[in-house]
Amino acid sequence: MENIETAAFSGQITAFSIVMTAISAFMRFITILMNWYLAYEYWKMESYTYCHWTIASILLPMILTTLIYSNVVIVSNLGKKPVICADLFWKLVLSYLFRDATTLNWTLKYNEAKKRDDKIAQIECYHRYLKEECNVGFIRLFDSFLESAPQKVLQLAIVLRYIKSLTYLRALTFLIYFISIAWCLVAYNRSNRMVQLDKYDIETKGLVVQFCFLLSFTASRTICIAYMASLFPMETFAACILHILLCGTVVFIVDTPKFGRSQIMNYILCLTFGAVYIFIFTPVSDGPTKYKYIIYLSLCFLQNLFACIIWIPLYLAILINGFFIMGIALMIYYYLQCHPGITSAIF
Fold it and tell me: Domain of 101?
C-alpha cells in the first residue's frame, strides 16, 4: 500500500490539468457541431459529393469509437458488478459528446479529497483518473485520425484543387488541426507511460521535441495524401484502404493485442490502428520499437518519394520530404537525448 501511495502521488492533478480537461470536454462538443455545420455548408453549396464524404467521415468514426469504448467499459467491469444497458447507453452518449467528461469528474473529486486531506480518497480518485485518462486518450486517438484527419485531407484536397477557396479561416483550421493531431499523440503516449508505474514521466523538453517530430510527420503525410486525393480521389482512397488492411493485419499478427473479448473485435481495433498508421506510427504494445519505426518510416518515405517524383510539383515535393526528413532527425534526437530512463540501445 505504501508503494501504491508513493506512485499515486508521484504526479499530482494540478489546477492547470483540471482547467485543460474542462476545455477539452467543451471543445469536443464544439468540434462535433462544427463538423456537422461543415457538412451542411457543402450541402448548401450543392457540393453533394463533399457533403456525403464529410458525413461518412463523421458517422463511420462515431460507430467505430462507440464500439471500442463500449468494449473498454465492458472489459473493465469484468468480475465486477454487471453493466446495465441503460447506464452503458448514457455513458456512450456522454462519451461521444463530451469525451473528457468522466476524466473531469475524477479530477474534481480528487480536488475535493485533497481539500479534506483524505489520502485514501485521493489515491482512489487519482487511480480512477489515470485509468479514465488512458481510456479516453485511446479513444481520442481514433477521433483524431478517423474523424478529423479525413475531413482535413478532404478540405486540403479542395484547396489544392481550387486554390481560390483558401480563406484565412480555413488556413487557421488547418493550423489548429496539425497542432491538435500532434498534441493528441503526445497526450496519448504520455498517458500510457503514466499508468505504468515502472516508467518515468516525460520531461517538458522531451514533450516539446516529441510534439515537433509528430507534427512534422503528420504534416508531411497529410499534404502528400491531400494532393494525391485532389488528382486521383478514388485511387487515393483505395490506396489508403490497402494501407489500412496491410498495417492492421501486420499489427494483429505481430503484436497480437488483447483489447477485446473476441478475435473479431481485436482485429477491428487493429484495423483502426491501421488507419492511424496512414499518418504516423504509434506503438500498440509495450516493448522495443526501433525496428518497427525503421520499417514503417521506410515504407512511408518510399510512398512519399514515389508520389513526389511522378505527380507532385517540385515546390510541394520539397515541402513534403523536408517535413518528413526533419521529423526523422527530431525523432532520433528525442530517443538519444530526451527519452526518460532509456538508452538508444534499447529503443
Answer: 1-191
Q: Is residue 196 part of a domain?
A: no
Residues 99 and 220: their CA atoms lie apart, in Å, by 28
pTM of the model: 0.77
DSSP 12: -
Same domain, 229 and 135: no
Neighbours of 88 (CB within 10 A): 15
Asked if residue 186 and residue 39 are part of one domain, the reply reads: yes
Q: Mind listing the pLDDT tens digit for each residue in 247-274?
A: 989 888 887 777 666 778 788 888 888 8
Place of cell 472489459: 75
